[in-house]
Structures are given as C-alpha cells and as structure tokens.
C-alpha cells in the first residue's frame, strides 16, 4: 500500500492556500491528514477537502506535530516566524513567500527546471515568484540548447497576484465605472480598472521595483548561472487571473523560430500555441484555471544576430504558486 503523508497548509483560507487544497485533491496527492492552518481570524471557518469540511486551526508554533509536509502561503513574516517551528517538528517546509528564496542554504525550485536542487534542502524549499516561474520554464530548453546571455522581460500581471482583495477591487471599480460612481482605490496605488500600473511591490534605490529585482536574482539562482543578464519591467493589468510576459532572449548561438518551437514543444510543462494565420496565441483569459505554461508569438529578433521573442502566459495562482509547490511535494 502506498505511503500517505500528513500535510499542513499554512494560509489555507487565502487565494493560494485554497488553490493548494484543490490541487492536492485534483492530483490525488497521498494525504493521510490535511491540516489547514491560518490566523486567529479564521478559526471559525472550514475548508473543503475530498468532500469533507475541515475546521481551520490557528497557526501556532505547536501546530505542526506529526506533520511531514508543510505548505506555506501566508506572507513572508509568518514564514519567517513559523517555518523553523515546522522544521523542528519534523516537517519539510515548501514556502511560497519571498522569505527564503535568496537564502544560499535554501533551494529555489521549479520542477521542470532544477528538480535536482530539491536534494539540497535542510528542511525548507522555496517556491519562486510567480512571474519568475513561468519565465524560467520557457527559458530552460532554450538555455540548454544555445546558452542564454541576456533576457529582457516585460510582465503583464493579473490582479490575483495581489490577493483576493485586489480581485474584489477590480470587480468593484468596473461596476463603479459603469454606474458612474466615484472609483474607490484602496489596494493599488491608482485605479486598476481600464488602466495599467507600472509599479508592483516597492521601489528600490536603483529605481527598479522589488518585484523586478526578484525576477533578476531568482532567474540566476534557478538556472544555476550567474552569467545570465536579466532586466525586467513589471506591470499590473486589469485582468483577473494569469500573468503574461513579453520575453526577449539573446543566446550564444542562433535559434531559429522553427528550432525554438521544436525545443519548447518537447519541454515539460509547456504548451506551444502559435499560429498567427488563425489568430492563435496564448491569452490570460484562456490560461486561467489551467496548469501549463503557454508560449506563442515565437519569432526571431531581427535587431540582433542571436535573438528570440516569446509571449509567455500562465495561471499565476496555479503554476505561479500552488501547482509549483505541489509538484515539489510530489518530487519529495
């Protein structure tokens, strides 16, 4: 009989935590006990798992007894405070926050890219930033074939990346706009409905945002190559689910459009949608709720000798967060 595991989901009532629970069930993960954990505000709530209503427990340092895998998605502060307690109790922590990503002692893993790094864990494995995950899934087969020198990426990130309150704000502002009411702006720096905001996370001293620099540093760590040069512009767009990215790649040797399609089509986790004659290319509306990383608009960059342009789309709550964590757990 296959072994089953006791699994805790920290942040079980949030958007990513809810998705984690759904994916554990959908993918038939071998769960013996599921333990939903959240702040004291959620104590009277229940979550649904395998046709059962499971009461949410309060996240405390003593909440991890007999837990073997702890999936964290409750903010970096809570991961910093409680992940060590989970490890001390005997669990392996898979953390979906930014807390441990750049810690040299913690592997930063995308299963399609660097599954071997899981073996290096000392109790904690970090899940990368959502926008980084889908990009490196697309970069990996190209890097293996032709060695990537430089990446220029512009992201078009959905509001769900900022949580349920951001989804609600877009919804409410759309209604307010149609009704002719004043727009209520709370979650974002500016109105998000019918607008683009080139500002995700805080600005740093170099005038990049923290989100942009996450993509720079995480890409190098995941790909295991500090020589890859990355520059990023991250933009919030009025889309509910799925992030899109325009990715320009410069490689050491030429990759034709045809070769790129061949490499990407064979790579794990990728689905190529690229037929401009019939207007087929990835769009966030189609990618929401799905697991693959979709790549299209593949074309050679005519401004340099060895360049490619890609359009990359993936569901940020699934592949960009919950699914990647579950895939790590499956490899464990």
Task: Write a structural description.
The chain is an alpha/beta fold. The chain folds into 2 domains: 5-128 and 322-331, Rossmann fold (3-Layer(aba) Sandwich); 132-317, Dihydrodipicolinate Reductase, domain 2 (2-Layer Sandwich), CATH 3.30.360. 30% of the residues lie in helices and 24% in strands. The protein is built from 8 helices and 14 strands. It has a 6-stranded parallel beta sheet, with helices on both faces. The longest helix is centred in the middle third of the chain and has 17 residues, at 130-146.
Shape: globular
Estimate the mean pLDDT confidence.
96
- Poorly predicted spans: none
The count of strands amounts to 14
CATH class of the largest domain: Alpha Beta
Strand content: 15-25%
CATH topology of the largest domain: Dihydrodipicolinate Reductase, domain 2
CATH superfamily of the largest domain: Dihydrodipicolinate Reductase, domain 2
| CATH architecture classification name of the largest domain | 2-Layer Sandwich
Structurally, how many domains make up the residues?
A: 2
Strand/helix succession: EHEEEEEHEEHEHHEEHEHEEH
| Main sheet attributes: strand count, strand direction, barrel closure | 6 strands, parallel
> Which value, in Å, is the CA radius of gyration?
20 Å
Structural class: alpha/beta
């Amino acid at each position: 009989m296959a072994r089953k595991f006791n699994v805790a989901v920290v942040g079980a009532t949030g958007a990513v935590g809810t998705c984690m629970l759904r994916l554990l069930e959908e993918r038939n993960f071998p769960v013996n006990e599921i333990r939903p954990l959240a702040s004291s505000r959620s104590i009277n709530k229940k979550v649904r798992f395998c046709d059962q209503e499971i009461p949410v427990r309060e996240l405390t340092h003593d909440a991890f007894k007999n837990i073997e895998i702890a999936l964290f998605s409750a903010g970096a502060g809570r991961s910093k405070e409680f992940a060590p307690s989970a490890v001390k109790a005997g669990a392996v922590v898979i953390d979906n926050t930014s807390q441990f990503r750049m810690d040299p002692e913690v592997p930063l893993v995308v299963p399609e890219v660097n599954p071997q790094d899981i073996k290096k864990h000392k109790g904690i494995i970090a899940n990368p930033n959502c926008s980084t995950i889908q990009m490196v899934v697309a970069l990996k087969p190209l890097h293996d074939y032709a060695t990537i020198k430089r990446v220029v990426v512009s992201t078009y990130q959905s509001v769900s990346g900022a949580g349920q309150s951001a989804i609600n704000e877009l919804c409410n502002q759309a209604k307010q706009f149609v009704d002719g009411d004043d727009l209520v702006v709370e979650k974002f720096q500016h109105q998000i409905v019918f607008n683009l905001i080139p500002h995700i996370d805080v600005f740093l001293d170099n005038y990049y945002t923290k989100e942009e620099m996450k993509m720079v540093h995480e890409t190098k760590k995941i790909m295991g190559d500090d020589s890859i040069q990355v520059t990023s512009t991250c933009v919030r767009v009025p889309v509910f689910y799925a992030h899109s990215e325009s990715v320009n790649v410069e490689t050491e040797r030429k990759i034709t459009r045809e070769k790129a399609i061949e490499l990407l089509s064979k790579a794990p986790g990728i689905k190529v949608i690229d037929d401009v004659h019939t207007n087929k290319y990835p769009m966030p509306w189609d990618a929401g709720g799905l697991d693959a990383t979709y790549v299209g608009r593949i074309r050679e960059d005519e401004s340099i000798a060895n360049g490619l342009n890609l359009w990359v789309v993936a569901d940020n709550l699934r592949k960009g967060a919950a699914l990647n964590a579950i895939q790590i757990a499956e490899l464990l």
